[in-house]
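Much of our argument rests on the idea that a fold can be written as discrete symbols. Part of our work consisted of pairing the sequence of a single chain with a tokenised description of its backbone. We regard such an encoding as a compact summary of how the chain folds. The amino acid sequence and the backbone structure tokens for this protein are reproduced below.
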Amino acid sequence: MNSTITNVVKVIIVEDYKLTRVGLKSSLSEFEGIEVTGESETAELGIQKIKDLKPDVVLMDLGLPGINGIEATQKIKEFDQNIKIIVLTSHERDEEVLAALGSGANAYCLKDIEPNTLVNVIKNVKQGAAWLDPNIAEVALKMFPKPESTKVLNAAGITDARAQLTEREMEVLRLLVKGKSNTEIAKDLIVSVHTAKAHVCSILQKLCVDDRVQAAVKAIRENII
């Protein structure tokens, strides 16, 4: 992912362990273009701070007291879809991964992520990219049954997802799986950002998914790319 984004990204950290919050804030402060504008140890206080401070990105822990990170993510998305949420967790259990994938977050990272990688994720998610930690992706893919073969689907008169996508949409999907933002997709394919966004919207509709992360998981799971 490209880390040459110059705009300052305002971040709020929602994490119940003080040591982790301090560590995250300290690590992020070493990088240009990132400003931690607030922090909270509970989802309830975090949601209020998010409403007051209007950050670009929220780093959200899952295992919070009271309202957990999944519920908090859903609540935040209900009042402001523009706020980008990165689930930052140490959990890799199947049920938690499945719940997290359905929460509407824009990225899913494990807490052992390298600081420079996290910064790149933050900056690119702010620009509209999606990110799924490879370890979480592996767990997610194991939870879904393997699809029927293309021959069986075609014999039943069902058009598979790959056949529905145009050649250009396949190119866009490959870049989307790599975590590219609409701006980066437009640059790579030499098209306008508006055109790149239109292709992404069409892909989501054809794959019957709600967001870029779900599209990436489906693309890998069903061997679309």
Summary: The chain has two domains: 9-141, 146-221. The CA atoms of residues 161 and 207 lie 6 Å apart.
